[in-house]
């Protein structure tokens, strides 16, 4: 069992420290960049020997590097990507999850303003309602990507630092925590920095347990959305007609730069009544029958803060609507 900062590393004994440090053939701890991560963690109260033992046990995983190089958001068109998440089985699973945790969802939604169906859909897309939360050791994922994936090394280096602090402060076993190939954890797949910023304890047991406690996980996801600006009661996305619009208008990124009214004047018009003052992001996605056009509103942008992909956000929204309809018997 790994000790937290209230229990000194000395109590483990030199033999156990050596055993832990030698349990895997890690090649990271002696790197200068790894020592900088350790220094940053130590500055936040982490024991240096403890941190060095953790990184000494970390292993490089080529499968992680392979996985991050081909995310579905970049390799599949919308009509194929959607089929991964908006399925009869995942809708049925969402209905079951929503019914099982109805009281928690109602309480959290009332407190944060985030719809119950959206909270369920996020957990459904991320981990199939907690069934598939990742099989990689988080420490392996983060060290591999921090030190052997230069493209995003700064991001994962910071996440590794957060992970060391998180594990040390919580008393969690840093070699036992599992997650995705990117180091995301629990029902809602929080990165370590997100856990430290947004994870919340719903049942007041003193621990924000996103790994095994669905109540805490639901509340944590909702808190993330609230902190990123969810607008209670506002719509999320609306289908649009944009066949005659300049294609360049769809290259502006995820953050809204124009209002619905301005985009309508530029040839991207909503197909249903929508407040023209809403900020909106125009999107063109590859559907089975040809291009699909959408306007992502402020709440849509909030969903993309969870995963910076328009296809991800649209899948979450469509799954949430399907779950809501199934629950209502529509």
Supply the helix-strand structural class.
alpha+beta
* Low-confidence regions: 1-25
Shape: globular
In total, the number of strands is 7
Count helical runs: 16
- Oligomeric description of these chains: single chain
Helix-strand pattern:
HHHHHHHHHEHHEHHEEHEEEHH
Radius of gyration, rounded?
22 Å
Distance between the first and last residues' Cα = 50 Å
Strand order of the largest sheet: 4-6-7-3-5
Overall pLDDT confidence:
91
Amount of helix: 40-55%
> Describe the biggest sheet?
5 strands, antiparallel
Percentage of residues in DSSP E strands? 5-15%
3D structure, described in words:
The protein is an alpha+beta fold. It has a domain at 237-296. 51% of the residues lie in helices and 9% in strands. It is built from 16 helices and seven strands. The chain has helices at residues 14-21, 32-42, 48-56, 62-68, 72-75, 78-85, 88-100, 102-112, 116-127, 138-148, 153-170, 192-198, 214-227, 260-265, 298-306, 310-328; strands spanning 136-137, 178-179, 237-241, 258-259, 269-270, 279-287, 290-296. The protein has a five-stranded antiparallel beta sheet with strand order 4-6-7-3-5. Helix 7 (88-100) crosses helix 16 (310-328) and helix 12 (192-198) crosses helix 13 (214-227). The chain is globular. The N and C termini lie far apart (50 Å). 45% of the residues are buried.
Which characteristics define this entry?
alpha+beta, two-stranded antiparallel sheet, 16 helices, five-stranded antiparallel beta sheet, 9% strand, disordered N terminus, 330 residues
